[in-house]
Amino acid sequence: MSSDDNNHAQPADPGRRRMLIGATSAIGAVGVGFVAVPFIQSWMPSERAKAVGAPVEVDLRTIKPDQIIKVMWRGQTIGIMNRSKRLLDRLTGHDDFLLDPASAVVEQQPEFAVNVHRSIKPEWLVFNMHCTHLGCIPQVLAEPGSFAWEADWPGGFFCPCHKSKFDLSGRVFKGVPAPTNLIIPPYSFIDDNTVIIGVTGAA
Ligand code: FES
Predict the structure, then answer these.
(1) CATH code for the domain of 104
(2) Which residues face 78 on adjacent strands?
(3) How far is the CA of 62 from the centre of ligand 1 (A)?
(4) CA 164 to ligand 1: nearest atom
(5) Above 80 in pLDDT, residue 53?
(6) What is the pLDDT of residues 99-137, one digit of tens each?
(7) What's the number of domains the chain is made of?
(8) Which of 113, 140, 158, 185 is deepest in the core (most CB within 10 A)?
């Protein structure tokens, strides 16, 4: 995904362009090493919708604390994680090990995500899951100790392709191939239970 994606937020047009994505099925749990998080086909936008890059609405009500789902937007895998306070508490204390702890690289997120949780609401992380090195999808290793090679692992994401590491806000660690934090796409909340990816200021 290029930096343009952060600049293409379209005004909401609920009559034509939105698709309500029902959250009705299994969700992959966060916190267990090497968890496979399945795509939910019923949540996928139509081929036509994907082709035009339509915004994607997601019902958040069935995403339990410490769980993550994946949806597709503009051909990219977007993760939506419900971070409990337990996970949010792990976002501090390791800034010295991060390449861009303050999200200073402006192309990597909208302005609303320039904060420690890199999100609008602290608990909801909405992020492009593709590694900023060569685009692999990192594994979810949210629990301390779930990274077998690193005793001080605070929880986060590990890219198995070339071993890049990101914290639970998608901030990249120093000394890995990935050059930047994971990208935060444009998004907003329609209401407390619904997020729309691809649109800012929808509420
Ligand atoms: S693609 Fe992730 S480290 Fe290379």
Answers:
(1) 2.102.10.10
(2) 71, 128
(3) 30
(4) 3
(5) no
(6) 999 999 999 999 999 999 999 999 999 999 999 999 999
(7) 1
(8) 140
